[in-house]
Amino acid sequence: MPGPGRGLGPRGFLTEEEKKNMPKVNGALLGRILGYLKPYSLQFLLVFVTILLSAVVGLLPSIITGRIVDEALVGKNMRLLVQLLIMAFVTLTASQVISVLESYINAWISQRIIFDMKNQMYDHLQHMPHAFFTSEKQGDIITRMNTDISGVSSVISGTLSSIVSNIATVVTTLVALFTMSWKLAIVGIVVIPLLILPTKSVGKRRYQLLTDSQAKNDEMNQLINETLSVSGSLLVKLFTREQKEYERFVDVNEEVTQLALKEQNSGRWFRVVMGMFTQLGPLLIYFAGGYLIISQADAGLTVGTITATVSLINRLYRPVESLLNIHVDFTRSLALFTRIFEYFDMPNPIQSPENGKKPDVTDADIVYEHVRFSYDSEKELLRDIDFTVPGGKMYAIVGPSGSGKSTVVNLIPRLYDVLGGRVTVAGVDVRDFDLTYLRSQIGVVTQDSYLFNGTIRDNLLYAKEDATQEELDAACYIANLSDFIANQPEGYETVVGNRGLKLSGGEKQRLSIARVILKDPKILILDEATSALDSITENAIQEALEALMEGRTSIVIAHRLSTILKADRILVVKDGVIAESGTHEELLDAGGVYRELYETQFRKILEMEGDK
C-alpha cells in the first residue's frame, strides 16, 4: 500500500465530480456486487485466512529482534543469537510465501470475476437494439467493456484485500505494541497525524497537475490518431500540411513535458519532509525509552523492547494512512460497479417473445399497416405508412435524402420497432416472430458494406458456417467475384483488412452481396446495394441479383433508374409518408414527387451512363 511519500495522487480525497456523482449506497447495490463474489466465497475465505496469518507472522521478526538485543547480545549468548537469526529468517521467508499465496488466490479470483462480467456484458450488448449503437459512443462501449470491468481486478485484489490486510495489520500491531509497552506505543501513535495531513494537501496539488497532464496527453493522442491514421495522413499529404502538423505536435508535446516536470517536482521536497517525519516517530520512541530506562521510571523496559517497538511502529504507519482513506477507496469502487451496472440496466425493448412464431415466409406478403415511427419523442419520422408488398414481388422505394427510406425497411428485421401500427410478414406481426428465426429469413445488403478484419473466406462463412467450397464458389460466381479471388495469390485466404480497406468499394460490395447469396434468405432487402459499383460491374451482377430475387419477396432502395424500372411497383417516400405509388409510367404521368426526382436525379444518371 502507498505510504508516506508515495501515492500522492487523489487517493486521499474525492474530487468535486466524484462527490457530485457519488453512488447511493444501499442494500440492493451491495447485494448485487456480492452476487459476483458469492461463487468464490471459499477462495475469499482462504484469502482472509492467509491475510490474518501473514499479519501475525509479520510481527515475529520485530519481536525476535527485541529478543536478539536483550537475550543474545546483552546476554552474550552466541548460540541463542544464531537460533534467533534462523528463526527471524524462517519467519521472513514464511511471510513472503504466504504473501505470494495470497496474491495468487487474489489474482485468480479477480480474473475469474472479470471473465464472468465480460461474458455477461458482451452477451448483453450483443442483444441490445440497433438504436443503442447508433446513439452510444463506440469509445464508451469499449471503455465499459474493457477498462471498467478490468478495473474490478483492482477492487478485488486491491481495495477489498487491502482493507482486510490493513485492518489485520493495525490490530495485531497495536496489540503487540501495547503488550510490550503502552507508554512507548502512545508516543509512536502521536506522530501519525503529522504524516497524514501534509499528504492530503500535496496530494490535491499533484492531482491537479496529473489532471492537466492527462488532458494534454489526450489532446496529443487525438492529434496523433487524426494525423497518423490512414485517412488522416492522406489528408495531410494532399493538403501539404506536414510542417504545420509537426509544429502543432511540438507545441502540445512541450506542454505535456512541462506539466510532467511540474508533477514530478511537486512531490520531490514533499518526499524529503515525509522521510523526516517518518523517522521522527522512532526518534521520539528512542528518546522516551531512553528517558524511562535512564531515570529508572520503568524497571521492566529493556533496550530490546525499544528496538522491537521502533520496528513495529514503522509497520503501523502505512496501513493507518490507508484506512483513513477507506471511504475514498470504497466510494470509487462502488462508482466503478455503478458504471458497469448502468449498462446492464439499460432496457432492451427489442427482444424475442417467449414461444415466438416461426411461420413459413416463402412468397409471403409484407404488409405495413398505418405504421408510425420516431427516433425521439420530438418528431415523427414516419407517419401512417401503409402498403403491401405481395409475396414474390420486387418493390422499389425512392425518395429524397433523409425521407426515411432506410428506416422503412429496417422495421422488417426489427432493427427498430414501430411506435404505432404494425408490420406483418405472412400475416404475423414481426414483433411476434422468434427474433432469430425472423432475421435468419431476411438478407440485407446495405450501402456501407461492413467486413470483418479477416479473410474473404471468413467473411463469407459469417453467413453460413458450414458452407462447402462449392457453395462458396457458386455465391462468388453469382456476385461476379470469382475472377477477383482467382487473381489473388492467397485466393479465399486473402485478408481484407480493417473494415475491408484493402478492397475497393466495388469489391467490398460484391463480397457483401455474395455473403447474402450464401445465406439464401426468403426476403431480400437491398439498401442502395449497387451504389459502390461502376456501371460495368453493376450490369454484370444485375442479372444475378434478379435471378436471386426470383421467387423471393424483395424491397430495393434504389438510386439508379435501371433498377427502379425493373420493380413491380415503385413507392415514393417523402416527409415520412408514402407520397406516391405506382409504375414508372404512372408516376411520371402523375407529375408529382417522382417526376421531380426523375428530372433532377434519375435522368441525369441515365444520360451519364448512356454517354459511357
How would you describe this structure in keywords?
612 residues; alpha/beta; 6-stranded mixed β-sheet; 4-stranded antiparallel β-sheet; disordered N terminus
What would you note in describing this structure?
- With 612 residues, the chain is α/β, with parallel strands linked by helices.
- Helix content is 63%, strand content 9%.
- The chain is built from 24 helices and 10 strands.
- It has helices at residues 16-20, 27-37, 41-73, 78-126, 130-135, 138-150, 152-180, 182-190, 192-227, 230-238, 242-266, 268-294, 303-324, 326-344, 405-410, 435-440, 456-461, 469-478, 482-486, 505-519, 535-549, 561-565, 584-590, 593-611, and strands spanning 366-373, 382-389, 394-398, 420-425, 428-429, 442-445, 523-527, 553-557, 569-574, 577-582.
- A 6-stranded mixed beta sheet has the order 6-7-8-3-9-10.
- α21 links the parallel β7 (523-527) and β8 (553-557).
- The N and C termini lie far apart (74 Å).
- The model is unreliable at 1-12 (pLDDT under 50).
How would you sum up this structure in a few lines?
With 612 residues, this protein is of the alpha/beta class. 63% of the residues lie in helices and 9% in strands.
